[in-house]
Amino acid sequence: MAGLELALAVNGSLDDVRSRLVHRTAAPPGTEPLSVGVVGLGYVGLPTALGLYARGVPAIGVDVSAERLAAIRTGTVDLPDDDRSALATALDAGGLRLTDDPALLSDVDAVVVCVPTPVDRHRVPDTAALRAACTAVVEHARAGQTIVLTSTSYVGTTREMLIEPLQRRGLRVGVDVCVAFSPERIDPGVPAHRQRETPRLVGGETPRCSERAARLIGYLTDAVYAVSTPEAAELAKLYENVYRAVNLALANEIADICGHLALDPIEVTTAAATKPYGFLACFPGPGVGGHCIPCDPHYLLWQLRTAAHPAPLIEQAMTAIAGRPRRVVARAVELLADTGGSLRGARILVVGVSYKPGVRDLRGSSALDILAELARRGAEVHYHDPLVPDCTLPDGTRLLTETDPQGTDWDLVLIHTVHPGVEYGWAAGCPRVLDATYRFDLAPHRQLV
């Protein structure tokens, strides 16, 4: 396809990839949606609305949280500076309207559902928000609309929550309305992974559904890859994050092996990554956080368990990921004991509590589990994170960030998340520095997890 080069290899062939790619630089007049409703204005929905506005498509943003809507109106949301400026422009120009009333969805030509799909404390999928959003979309759907679900969930979700309810309403999918699944691929805090340059999948209920959905998603990205069904797209998304989870669990295991053999896991991983094929570099850390990898694989595992279908590799990877914070705490205990200290009563400062550098997001952050476990075992815990003024531990304990920490104030400084542009040289003044990032070079005496 002219003007498009996509660096993908599927079983060694790009021909099949290109045959399923839709690449559009211009739209035939009168064939595109005139307005779009974006349901859910979180880390996916808000950038989606802004991406549409950037291409001249007005959007209505629907969110049930009055607090979230207020934060968007005031610009106090976690966005890059250029997106924050675009948000202000879109709101001022009326290109993005905000509401908590889903009835307004009947006025738009297309609807994109972008609500969160977390797991509960037992790692069981929590689909309450998704079901409520889809119910509202179905209730207010009208003939002529294109409806695209982007939220990651178990295989069959699009059919169960959208296609079948729409048909029960008397709307023929593929004729009266078009429905597809197109999983989000947002990577917060990573400027190199911009929405426009990231290919998207589309799986429609019919070829016409796929075509209409691809036209809509084409406003957000230059490359849309079509699969045969919504279910194929749903499993592809789960596979993406399962793949990442398995590799991260392996990276942490290799790091522990490197510690046993007195080797640097970053050096070893970087060396292995010089191989130009067959190896994806994943680096170890204090845990796996965020809104995707600690959650999404459990949607697949939950579905497979209901059918008594085993997935031992995925199960083991997720167990290892869940146990990583305890390994970090155990290493802190070892480091204190090796230098004549004790965890009980020790003043410990955790540096960085967001789940990744450059974001304020605490969802799934291993720092919260590490702080909670340290406190449970008798340590006096504090944290320093200039992006996160306060945080709440799983037991309800609320902590405030240490705004001006000094290394000499602590028995142990534990490096969890290092934000770009922040000064951390003070940490070298602490006699014990435990580096859970494996890359903190400002304290020569640091010890690795």
UniProtKB/TrEMBL annotation:
It comes from Actinocatenispora sera. It holds the Pfam family UDPG_MGDP_dh_C. SUPFAM superfamilies: 6-phosphogluconate dehydrogenase C-terminal domain-like, NAD(P)-binding Rossmann-fold domains, UDP-glucose/GDP-mannose dehydrogenase C-terminal domain. Keywords: NAD, Oxidoreductase. It comes from the Bacteria. InterPro entries: 6-PGluconate_DH-like_C_sf, NAD(P)-bd_dom_sf, UDP-Glc/GDP-Man, UDP-Glc/GDP-Man_DH_C, UDP-Glc/GDP-Man_DH_C_sf, UDP-Glc/GDP-Man_DH_dimer, UDP-Glc/GDP-Man_DH_N, UDP_ManNAc/GlcNAc_DH. Signal peptide: none annotated. The keyword Transport does not apply. SMART domains: UDPG_MGDP_dh_C. This is Nucleotide sugar dehydrogenase. Residues 349-442 form the UDP-glucose/GDP-mannose dehydrogenase C-terminal domain. One of its GO terms (molecular function) is oxidoreductase activity, acting on the CH-CH group of donors, NAD or NADP as acceptor. Gene3D superfamilies: NAD(P)-binding Rossmann-like Domain. Belongs to the UDP-glucose/GDP-mannose dehydrogenase family. The keyword Ribosomal protein does not apply. GO terms for biological process: polysaccharide biosynthetic process.
